Amino acid sequence: MAAPGERHWPDGGDFLDVALSAVRTEERGGYIERLEAFVEQHRARLEECGPGSAPASHGRYALIGQPETLVILERMETAPMLLRGLWKKELETVFLDDLEFAWGPRIYISR
Questions:
Q1: Does the structure show a pLDDT above 50 at 47?
Q2: For 68-75, what is the mean pLDDT?
Q3: Cβ–Cβ contacts within 10 Å for residue 29, how many?
Q4: What does the DSSP assignment read for 13-39?
């Protein structure tokens, strides 16, 4: 999902912090395993949205190819409304909107 050494942001910690805040207390135990299962389930899709992909070639999709994006995508699939609510409080929604469009989730919660 992320190319080694390539970063659009010096520190994606803000994005990661918001995404991780959408992991409910009861989900925290075993979250690494849940993330690994998400990767296995969506491997082909993740490769379509990784470095060198069509969405990554557009400057608009700044979060594509960033390491923290894996957690954001997992939360987008698992708890989209919670993620969006927390994101709105902390960050510009354009980043999440663009990632949501590039990923193509089942529903568009921003529209």
A1: yes
A2: 92
A3: 9
A4: HHHHHHHHHTS-HHHHTTHHHHHHHHH
**pLDDT band at 3; cut points 50, 70, 90:** very low
- Domain membership of residue 111 (yes or no) is no
Is 40 among the domain residues?
yes
As a whole number of angstroms, the distance between CA 63 and CA 106 comes to: 19
Q: What's the rounded mean pLDDT across residues 20-31?
A: 95
Confidence of residue 102 (pLDDT cuts 50, 70, 90): confident
| Angstrom distance (rounded) from CA 23 to CA 26 | 8
Domains of the chain: total: 1
Q: Is residue 6 part of a domain?
A: no
- Helices and strands: H and E segment counts in the chain: 8, 0
SS3 state of residue 54: helix
Domain extent at residue 92 = 13-103
Amino acid code (one letter) for 48: E
In a domain, 110, yes or no: no
